Amino acid sequence: MADAASRLTALAEELLGAPPPIRIRAWDESESGPADGPVLVIGHPRALRRLLWKPGELGLARGWVAGEIDVEGDLYEALEALAGLIWERSEPGPGLRSLGDPRLRSAVRELLALAGPRFWLPVPPPAEEVAARRGPLHTKARDRQAISHHYDVGNAFYEQVLGPSMVYSCAYWRDGGSLEDAQRDKLDLVCRKLALREGDRLLDVGCGWGSMAIHAAREYGAQVTGVTLSREQAAYARKRIAEEGLTDRIEVRVQDYRDVKDGPFDAISSIGMAEHVGSVRYREYADVLYGLLKPGGRLLNHQIARRPEQDEAAYRVDDFIDAYVFPDGELAPLGRTLSILEEAGFEARDVESLREHYARTLRAWVANLESDRRRAVRHSSPGRARIWRLYMAASAVAFERNRIGVNQILAVKSRDGGGSGMPLRARNWNDADGR
């Protein structure tokens, strides 16, 4: 097919209402578009068939996962260039989702011609896509399946991406520090906000590979119960805890937080877990945690948020992330999360945005993955390594461009009479005494 790149450029302009901001190279080695910067490589016409059958982000993502779409050059620069055209359009043009619009028949005919003679045949999704899901959202059984898809992919893969800290949430950066330093500082910030003291009972909801539990027990003398739905995480955490000599201070369970019955606790940490809860269960989540705290107890809720939307369905994560990364995940606006926590009885005492910290953390994780891609593939699969690279890089750009944010909410279950036990200077966490 002669000069497929020029035809793709013209087609993209017709569908999106503006010329592509980066250069395109097609499967016939033809190129079109700006001479400088990254190159979007469409390596096989099969990628266009995917768009015909699944217009929009998911079709593009399937092409990426299959290796039919790639970026040559700086991936972040490419994502930045495409963001304003695809994800952040204030006045959307026809768009890839409107391929069935009769007004776009000429564009569709061109896409069919480029896709090749077998365009009518659907292309099976590449591996690692979430299998068909059954039943209502956020039942215990469905949540277990979703968590297993994301976390039970091999601890060795996460060791490479996350580094020695094994913390899968945003770090707390200071100038000149390493990722490990920044993750340690984040865990310490959480412990100080919770005012942990020797002998306090801490419930760590979504305890991951045990890093928060270990820090709280080792540095603050807390008695920690960690719960996770991932068996691989739990096994890894228990091994680390034994190596630290902390088995008398930490218990890790494979358990749904809704099944925890041995409260009350002095404090609860929930770091990067509430994104899995979903809007239909969030009030239940808040009620359960409130009921598990002692009067005067504190909750530290560390959670990604999206910008406010009129439509609650928009809280669902993007199609690519739902299909390949975080099944059934939802990102609510900060205000909604605060309102539900308050409705459950909590008093919100502090909110701290860490948006820029998460962007920097994600870039560090991408650098870890890219430092040895062959190793990443060996510990997972080619598709999985491509998925994580795109999802983390795209998420970094989303945080930097303020499409999403992340916040730590410190909330208190008041004592009888309304006392909070909080210091007068709320941000001087080292000065938190008495509850």
Automatic annotation (TrEMBL):
Q: Name one GO molecular function term.
A: methyltransferase activity
- Asked if the keyword Methyltransferase belongs to this entry, the reply reads yes
Extract the InterPro entries matched here: CFA/CMAS, CMAS, MeTfrase_dom, SAM-dependent_MTases_sf
The annotated region (Disordered) lies at 416-435
Q: Which of UniProt's keywords are assigned here?
A: Lipid metabolism, Methyltransferase, S-adenosyl-L-methionine, Transferase
Q: Where is the Polyketide synthase-like methyltransferase domain?
A: 157-397
Q: Which CDD domains match?
A: AdoMet_MTases (cd02440)
Give me any GO biological process, just one: methylation
Q: Give the highest taxon in the source lineage.
A: Bacteria
Recorded family membership: Belongs to the CFA/CMAS family.
The protein here is known as Cyclopropane-fatty-acyl-phospholipid synthase
